[in-house]
Amino acid sequence: MSDLTTDPYRTSLRTAADWGLVAIALPTLAALALPVGVRNGAVLGWFGGTMAPLFLIGVVLAVVAGASAPKRVWGAWAELAGVALAWLLPLHLLNEGLDLSAGWGLWLFLAAATLLLWRVMGVLAGVPGWTRSVIVPGLFGLGLLVGWEVLVRGFQVPAILLPPPSRIAAALAANAPVLWDDFRQTVLTSVLRGYVMGCGAGFLVAILADRVPFLARGLLPLGNLASAIPVVGIAPIMVMWFGFDWQSKAAVIVVMTFFPMLINTLAGLGNSERIQLDLMRSYAAGYGSTLVKLRLPNALPFLFNGLKINSTLALIGAIVAEFFGTPVVGMGFRISTEVARMNLDIVWATIAVAALTGSGLYGALALLERVTTAWHPSMRGR
Questions:
Q1: Would the keyword GTP-binding turn up in this protein's UniProt record (predicted)?
Q2: 0.90 exceeded by the pTM?
């Protein structure tokens, strides 16, 4: 539905449209009096080249068309096209060899474009369906990457401090076989095994502690104590106990994931309401039937909460454990060795792989939670 005038949130955005466009237009006009960059010692203004005026005209047209954005979706997409043009300009100028560090007109122009992007995202976030759940988060992440690229290259930040995303992507492509071996050793060998053992043990012990109450009273304080133990303290101990292969990394993961799963499972098992338990007793249901048919289904949101938390903890634990001893492969091994060699591109590429892996695992569990607990009250409105 393209007409958004019936939505109160969109109506408030429409009221704010005038001052929003003014706030965007003022820095854009001020930027025209300032340079966009320096080439061979010569300061270039907006009309010193061929492309900058075209980018500016495209953005102005998008802003004019986007005046209807708070009431119609097509206007928001027009504004988004203007933002894309604005952020393509510094990339174009960088590829032409301009020094943008003194191009204050360009940076002021990008600040106005960022305000425009804020306005656009506010409109698109109110559109139901894939636009709100997928496109808006994707555009937000893409905007962060483009901003990172432009700022790092524009201000000539040394790559040893912070490389641009394009350089990290090039390192990913150039070292793909090595990074795949590291991924297979860390994730497929250590993380998955330790994750299954740690979460499984936490779940089973929680069931036992629920049946034997004094275990819960004794284990919960231990859980608080274990959560305060730094992973860098237990990792070298586990390496000495279990050796340099995946067993020591799995042991670290078990220690890190056991108690979060235990605590979340116990909290979930205690989430059933008294009237529901009384109903089960009225049908002469025993402990096992009540557990399987009522308490575990009600505990699913808590179980998935523990699983999602542990999905990131397991990856962190495995990588940190590899700093203290591993075969000559693994993400932690790669980070520690390449930092010593000052190969920061490979280090950032490994970090990118780890971040994408953790996000993928978390997202897969969140999707599975949505599918399996769609009936639960906690999922209403999501």
A1: no
A2: no
